[in-house]
Structures are given as structure tokens and as C-alpha cells.
Specification:
It is built from ten helices and 14 strands. The protein is α/β, with parallel strands linked by helices. It starts with 7 loop residues before the first helix and ends with a helix. The protein binds pyridoxal-5'-phosphate (PLP).
Length: 367
């Protein structure tokens, strides 16, 4: 039996009529740039995340880039973040002229370890950017406490975590700004690229609205320099439809995770750790085994979709060589990148499929 890591065709079949109608409406209107469709979706995301405002942009990467610009991060500043994340987190820091300062992860949750943040703060620190990896929020209370005490804003990379909760608060609503991605494989994925920034600050939201259109206040009048980064109306129309189904899908993922957790308990397969106060939306379900590369080949040969997120932590990437990190500096991130693997978790997995995946994983560890 072949089991894909993610099957978006299956999802489309369940919402086809709604999606096609929404796309048809935009095409009929020929209004593709911003407009009422995008404004409505921004309002929907703000209310879903529990923030006052939300501003649509062209991708999750741009959401981080523009959020950092809005937070005033620039040349020679430092941003504290995790090296165990998708490249965009630190790439965006460098793109605004600042320097990523990496802090190692908590090996149970794969999120930044708050107890190591304070030592990394200097007078150049202009932001702390936790990533809510795989759909589980970072341990935000100690992060927010340090940030407040040291007068440094928090920007959340919530690209993998829409709808996830930390002690009742939604991802993207805890920091000064929250960054989301609608890349197709995210829990709320568009039919192309898209992103969103959430905030309670009208001032920052208005600034972002200007930055996403080349820093204009009115057409052809530019008070600052931004970029071209809009969410388009077609994506907003698709995403509005999908947002209505998002909680059902995320609950389906969590139910699949409960099933795997129960199968892996007490075996040589370490299931992901979920803090009891978190709502985890399982953008990925990560298992940990010492012979990860062998498990990867074994599952691939058995027709089971799987992937490594992420095989090389960012402090060891060639492009960041000048930052001066070396192997051994972030031991938990390095270990995680060698021992973890992502297995199918999407909500429309059949019972037969998830049984098969669990059987195969367990068959491997039992040899
Ligand atoms: C997907 C992702 C991004 C970037 O989003 P894009 O929409 O692909 O640009 C940033 N950070 C994390 C943690 C991500 O998973």
C-alpha cells in the first residue's frame, strides 16, 4: 500500500464546489489586486487568531521580512532565533541587514529553549523570533517575560502554526507581530503562495499596508521604501473557503496523532512531545529514532511518504559561514536534524493507511 505524506487532491475533492465557485467569482470580477475579497479574508484571520488586525502579503517569507522591517529591525541589529527551522526564518533576518543569533532548542518540543535566550541578548538585540515548529507553540510565557524585561519585541514565526494555542492564546497573537504562510502544504494552504501578518497595533498594521505597496501612502507618493508583496484576491478567495474547514482538519490531524502516540508508546520510536497546555495542530508529525536514515530508506521502499525537516540546522548552512558558528555549537538542533523524520498525518488518512504506517514504523524498530 502506498501512503502519501500529504494528499491535497483528496482535500480538494471534499470542497471542490465551494472552491470553484469562489475562484469563479474572482475571475468574473477581474479584480485580482487586494480589494474587498482580501480585506474580508484579513478580517477573518484577525478574528481567528484573536488580533485586532491582519495584513495579507505574498508569502510567509515576506511576512517575516516585512514584520521585521515594521518592528524597526535593520542594519547591524541582532535577532535571536532558532537554528532548527525552515530557512526563511533566518534568511529574512539577513535580508533586512541584521544578524541572526541562534539559540538551541528544547529537544522534547524542537522549539527554542527559553532558558538559553537571556545569555544571547546584547545591546544590539532588536527582536526575539520564536518559531512554533511543526504546529506547536514555543514556550511563550518565559520568552515574553524576558522580552518585556529587556525591552525587546517578540515577532512570532507562526508559519506552521495557524490555530495552535499556548495556554488558551492563539499563535500569532502573543508577540508584537505574528507571521503566517499559506504555502500549499501548510495546514491552511493556498493554491500558490501567500502570507499574513497579525498584530494588535493599528500603527504597525497601517505601516505594513504601506510597506507591501512600495511604501506608498497614496498612489505614486512614497514616504519610505517597501516592496511589492500583496496577497492576491484569488488566493484570498480560496483561503476563505478553506478557513471554514481548518479546525476540522486540524482536529483530524490531532486524532491521527493520538492514534500514532498510542501505537508508539513504550517502543523504540519517540513520538512528539505535546505540552499539556498547548493545542498542537500537527503541521508535521515527527518521530525520533537513532537510525533515522535507515528508517527513511525503509519507509520510502515500502511506499510510505516521509520527509526530513530539517536535515541541516541553519547555523551550519554555507551561506551563514560568516556568522562564525561551527559544528557542536547547537548540539540539540544537530541531534534533532540527524534523528527525526516526518510521517503522514493529514486529516483524510484512512484508518487502513495509518494502521499501515504505524505497523511499518514499528516493524522497522523491532527489526
Ligand atoms: C513555510 C515557512 C516559512 C515561509 O513561508 P513561505 O510561504 O514558504 O515563504 C517560514 N517559516 C517557517 C517556519 C515555515 O515553515
Amino acid at each position: 500500500m502506498n501512503v502519501p505524506l500529504l494528499d491535497l487532491k483528496r482535500q480538494y475533492q471534499t470542497i471542490k464546489d465551494e472552491i470553484n465557485a469562489a475562484i469563479g467569482e474572482v475571475v468574473e470580477s477581474q479584480g485580482f489586486k487586494l480589494g474587498p475579497r482580501v480585506a474580508a479574508f484579513e478580517q477573518e484571520i484577525a478574528s481567528y487568531c484573536g488580533t485586532k488586525r491582519a495584513v495579507g502579503v505574498a508569502s510567509g517569507t515576506d511576512a517575516i521580512l516585512l514584520a521585521l522591517m515594521a518592528a524597526g529591525v535593520g542594519r547591524d541589529d541582532e535577532v535571536i532565533t532558532t537554528p532548527y527551522t525552515f530557512f526563511a526564518t533566518a534568511g529574512a533576518v539577513t535580508r533586512v541587514g541584521a544578524r541572526p543569533v541562534f539559540v538551541d532548542i528544547d529537544p522534547r518540543t524542537y522549539n527554542i529553549d527559553p532558558s538559553k535566550i537571556e545569555d544571547a541578548i546584547t545591546e544590539r538585540t532588536k527582536a526575539i523570533m520564536p518559531v512554533h515548529l511543526y504546529g506547536q507553540c514555543a514556550d511563550m510565557d518565559p520568552i515574553l517575560e524576558i522580552a518585556e524585561r529587556r525591552g525587546v519585541p517578540v515577532v512570532e514565526d507562526a508559519a506552521q502554526a495557524i490555530g495552535s494555542e499556548y495556554r488558551g492564546r492563539r499563535a500569532g497573537s502573543m508577540g508584537l507581530l505574528g507571521c503566517f504562510s499559506f504555502f500549499p502544504s501548510k495546514n491552511l494552504g493556498g493554491y500558490g503562495d501567500g502570507g499574513m501578518i497579525t498584530t494588535d497595533s493599528d500603527e504597525l498594521a497601517d505601516l505594513l499596508v504601506s510597506l507591501r505597496e512600495h511604501g506608498q501612502t497614496e498612489t505614486y507618493h512614497h514616504w519610505t521604501i517597501g516592496t511589492n508583496s500583496r496577497l492576491d484576491a484569488l488566493q484570498a478567495a480560496v483561503l476563505s473557503v478553506k478557513l471554514r474547514h481548518l479546525d476540522g482538519w486540524s482536529d483530524g490531524r490531532a486524532a491521527n496523532a493520538d492514534y500514532y502516540d498510542s501505537r508508539f508508546e513504550g517502543t523504540g520510536v519517540a513520538a512528539p512531545h505535546r505540552e499539556e497546555w498547548n493545542r498542537h495542530i500537527y503541521n508535521q508529525y515527527i518521530v525520533r529514532v537513532p537510525e533515522r536514515d535507515e528508517l527513511l530508506s525503509y519507509l520510502r521502499e515500502s511506499g510510505i511518504g516521509c520527509a526530513i525537516y530539517y536535515p541541516k540546522p541553519l547555523h551550519l548552512q554555507e551561506c551563514f559561514k560568516t556568522l562564525g558558528y561551527s559544528k557542536g555549537d547547537m548540539p540539540e538542533s544537530e541531534r534533532a536534524s540527524a534523528e527525526t523524520i516526518s510521517i503522514p498525518i493529514f486529516s483524510l488518512l484512512s484508518d487502513e493507511e495509518k494502521t499501515h504506517v504505524a505497523d511499518k514504523v514499528l516493524g522497522f524498530v523491532k527489526g
